[in-house]
Amino acid sequence: MEPEKALEAVKSGAILLLLDVPQYTLIGIDTQAFYVGPAFQGIKMIPPGVHFVFYSSSTRDGKEFSPIIGFFMDAGRSQVVVRRWNPQEECLLKVSEEEEERFSRAVRNLEFDKHLGPYDRSHYADWKRLSNYVTKSTIERLEPIGGEITVTCESGMLKNTRKNAMERALDEHLRNSKFSTPGEKSQRRGCYYTPIPHIVKRKGIESGQLTSLNLDKAKLLETLLVKDYGGSEDSLLGELQFAFIAFLMGQSLEAFIQWKSLVSLLFGCTKAPFRTRSQLFTKFIKVIYYQLTYGLQKDSRIVEAGASAVLDDSWFSSDSFLHHLCKDFFSLVQDASVVDGDLLSWTRKLQELLENRLGWEFQQKSGVDGIYFEEDDEYAPVVEMLDEPSES
């Protein structure tokens, strides 16, 4: 970065001042992660907006790490956020208002500048694609009391929840961890996620109608959008991204279950994608595409740190829930008589990603491999181009 631009980034960017953090601690922000050195005291040049900060304490030799703790923050222009390490609880705590003001003045006078690592803005585009629907109101609505998200307080919450093999493995890993603290922390409240019914139950309707409601989640989606999201599609997508970030970066099992519930809800709609909600589903497919593109990277330190516990091979097997949902959705797009052009294009990209990265195969009823058709194929769906310009 040129000196003039670097100075402007220092002045306009937010600063995260992290005091007394022990050496070898894993510290991360957004899609970046690193191990603390002896001179580290925080991160500078953070672009204003929503970010996710996470960390994991280590043993003195830096070989074993505790479960990750993370929190979202909405950083203002030139804002200084101060946290101090508590060695007893092994976590970052807020300081008093008086201390924060004193440290903020020192930071703005560049007294800490040589101890602050720069935010790598070359990775910022990746982060924005993962978080573009997460807003300050999203954070305030979903974050737990105190703001900290950690799997160590989730074991009791999910005791009676049905789990797949990956979720059971992560739960077992938590219980057997030497860092697990089942006492006071386990009593803490988790995130305030929107309840998503897995089975629709309604009194006074015929069994055939009830079966239809469970086969097609479109009516459930409409109900949730009005009741829980104030009619805002972007608010729902913000929760989907919030849960994915808390799951992947924060290694939260509760977040994974919510992400899975939202994905299952949206992929379970068999009519909405092609009628009243085509724009929502185009945005949804883009969100999932970017999430999986990032999550499937093998060279990310964040993914490496949590891959064994969160993104294990069984999660991406051909009999996983995601494979079945995608297979049905791709078939739905193929068989539709009218398809929005953007939705078709992004669905193709998602299918290519899963086929190329995971080797998944999606057998279609027509016998065609994938959702690709010759221009003169009379059985191909009609592509309907909307007048409204596409999102970049």
From TrEMBL:
It holds the Pfam family AAR2_1st. InterPro entries: AAR2, AAR2_C, AAR2_C_sf, Aar2_N, AAR2_N_sf. Residues 13-144 form the AAR2 N-terminal domain. Residues 193-363 form the AAR2 C-terminal domain. Gene3D superfamilies: 2.60.34.20, Aar2, C-terminal domain-like (1.25.40.550). Belongs to the AAR2 family. This is AAR2 protein family isoform 2. It comes from Theobroma cacao. The lineage of its organism: Eukaryota, Viridiplantae, Streptophyta, Embryophyta, Tracheophyta.
